Amino acid sequence: MKQVSLGHDGFSVSRLGFGGWALGGQWGTQDDSESLAALKQAIEHGITFIDTAPGYGDGRSEQVIGEFLKTLPSSLRERIHVATKTPPSEGPWPPSPYCQWKDRYGAAYIRANVEERLKNLGVECLDLLQLHSWTAAWNDDPQPLLVLQKLRQEGKINRIGLCTPEQDQNCVIQLMRDGLVDVVQVVFNIFEQEPAAQLFPVAEETGTGVIVRVSLDEGSLTGKYAADHEFPEDDFRSGFFAGDRMERTAHRVSSIQDDLKEFGLEEHYSLAATAIQFAMSPTAVDTVIVGMRNPQQVDLNVATEALPPLPAEFLQRLQLHQWRRGVWYAGK
Question: For the NADP-dependent oxidoreductase domain, which residue ranges apply (predicted)?
Answer without folding.
Answer: 15-319
